[in-house]
TrEMBL record:
<dbReference type="GO" id="GO:0044853">
    <property type="term" value="C:plasma membrane raft"/>
</dbReference>
<comment type="similarity">
    <text>Belongs to the MAL family.</text>
</comment>
<dbReference type="InterPro" id="IPR050578">
    <property type="entry name" value="MARVEL-CKLF_proteins"/>
</dbReference>
<keyword id="KW-0472">Membrane</keyword>
<dbReference type="InterPro" id="IPR008253">
    <property type="entry name" value="Marvel"/>
</dbReference>
<dbReference type="GO" id="GO:0019911">
    <property type="term" value="F:structural constituent of myelin sheath"/>
</dbReference>
<feature type="transmembrane region" description="Helical">
    <location>
        <begin position="125"/>
        <end position="148"/>
    </location>
</feature>
<feature type="domain" description="MARVEL">
    <location>
        <begin position="18"/>
        <end position="151"/>
    </location>
</feature>
<dbReference type="GO" id="GO:1902043">
    <property type="term" value="P:positive regulation of extrinsic apoptotic signaling pathway via death domain receptors"/>
</dbReference>
<keyword id="KW-0449">Lipoprotein</keyword>
<feature type="transmembrane region" description="Helical">
    <location>
        <begin position="53"/>
        <end position="77"/>
    </location>
</feature>
<dbReference type="GO" id="GO:0120003">
    <property type="term" value="C:hinge region between urothelial plaques of apical plasma membrane"/>
</dbReference>
<feature type="transmembrane region" description="Helical">
    <location>
        <begin position="89"/>
        <end position="113"/>
    </location>
</feature>
<keyword id="KW-1133">Transmembrane helix</keyword>
<feature type="transmembrane region" description="Helical">
    <location>
        <begin position="25"/>
        <end position="46"/>
    </location>
</feature>
<keyword id="KW-0812">Transmembrane</keyword>
<dbReference type="GO" id="GO:0002175">
    <property type="term" value="P:protein localization to paranode region of axon"/>
</dbReference>
Amino acid sequence: MAPAAVSGGSTLPSGFSVFSTFPDLLFVLEFVFGGLVWILVASSLVPLPMIQGWVMFVSVFCFVATTVLLILYIIGAHGGETSWVTLDAAYHCIAALFYLSASVLEALATIFLQDGFTFKHYHENISAVVFSYVATLLYVVHAVFSLIRWKSS
């Protein structure tokens, strides 16, 4: 890796260097785990529509926004402007907060599912909780390193 990538350089990568720089490499993992949360929540039984509706909104919003940002970075739409560094840091901070709230609410919904629902639905929700917390961790790490990059820009 390039020294700027390790130290959290002040510019955003473009092209396929997005896949070789940290923290931008985390886009791929956020995409995968966010998609898993979306799939698991969509396929599970919904006993508490308000709670799981928020989890669904967060997972779909972050999945789509992460995909759009990844594509924009690959095509180099940012043009090296520092305003995109601010956008990247702000998005990942908001996504981390959204995912943290969604993870806690999904865990609460899973606790309520413990009695009276099938074993399969309970396990789907447990998987959604685990993947949601993994996605939260990824977004938090990405937010921290994006903030470091923002501060040095």
